[in-house]
């Protein structure tokens, strides 16, 4: 199984240098090819540096382009590398990696490379839900990975078979990204240059997942550039440190992984705890979905009959359902029954639940106007992939 590392670069030499330093510090049990793929920009500084750089862990290849491809076409062009490699570890230039990233990727390729349920492998673990900007933490189980229907661009692995399935579907779309309630509305705000929204939609339509680590093997430094007007630490993930062997990772077969999330960051494993039909319920704890099935789990106060309700106490939110923490903050409705809406959750309680005392301390230090300016800046820094 031949695996190459691919650094995807445009015009940020400093970002590339930082990434290469993190790659140099990683552990490789065998020589590894590094491919630096550079899109055409107004400077040759990146090309000059890439050609002069000496990769100490194996062969180095530099790919340049005569004209600007843009993010989507540049990423799609990487598929040509599967003529030489079985799997690709793809890193945008502002991504840095943990020392064990290659060992994790190698172990996952061996386990999930040909699994029909898996569309790709993520090195990155989301600290927040990028659709709502609220904290995200998956439920932990007796494995080092879980499944999610969000494709990844902040450190990902594709195998030849996984890419072939996606590319066949993508070509059939003819560039169209039509409205669909199954797809998070956030994706429709991303620019035409985004390839990632297509990959996520492919996962949704074919009911496939990316394998995600609980401990992140990459992080997003979010340097200012084409996809973000300002640098931010919002998407920095705490990375795994230390060395380990591929056999140390607990990687069950994908079909045996019960902890699964959809493209809205919502859990797909609560039907048993709720006592409802798994094919007739919708979980919408982040309140982003526009359609629902008969049974609806949400924090919203709606005019339907309440089947059960739970406190907003344990973290993550779904643990209150799993542990049957009685309360009146999270509601499971039967939407076929009309009723008076329950009392909605107090917004101050939500802030305290998600952010603890941080919001209130921040307000004390910089004032309400400062808080508003900070939140507006975070909104401006929304990712455009």
Would you give an account of this structure?
The chain has helices at residues 13-24, 45-52, 70-77, 101-112, 160-173, 196-206, 271-274, 319-322, 347-355, 358-380; strands at residues 3-9, 33-38, 60-64, 87-92, 95-97, 118-122, 128-129, 134-135, 145-148, 156-159, 209-213, 218-220, 260-261, 281-284, 295-298, 304-310, 330-338. It is of the alpha/beta class and 385 residues long. It is globular.
How would you summarize this macromolecular structure in one to three sentences?
This protein is an alpha/beta fold.
Keywords:
alpha/beta; Spore Coat Polysaccharide Biosynthesis Protein SpsA, Chain A; 27% helix; 9-stranded mixed sheet; single chain; globular; 4-stranded mixed sheet
CATH topology of the largest domain: Spore Coat Polysaccharide Biosynthesis Protein SpsA, Chain A
CATH classification, class level of the largest domain: Alpha Beta
Straight-line distance between termini: 30 Å
The secondary-structure element order is EHEHEHEEHEEEEEHHEEEHEEEHEHH
CATH fourth-tier homologous superfamily of the largest domain: Spore Coat Polysaccharide Biosynthesis Protein SpsA, Chain A
Q: Estimate the mean pLDDT confidence.
A: 91
> What structural category characterises the helix and strand content?
alpha/beta
Q: What share of residues are in beta strands?
A: 15-25%
Shape: globular
CATH architecture of the largest domain: Alpha-Beta Complex
Give the biggest sheet.
Answer: 9 strands, mixed
How many individual helices?
10
- Strands of the widest sheet, in order across it, are 3-2-1-4-10-6-11-9-13
Low-pLDDT residue spans: none
What is the oligomer described by this structure? single chain
User: What radius of gyration results from the CA coordinates?
Assistant: 22 Å
Task: Find the count of extended strands (DSSP E, 2+ residues).
Answer: 17
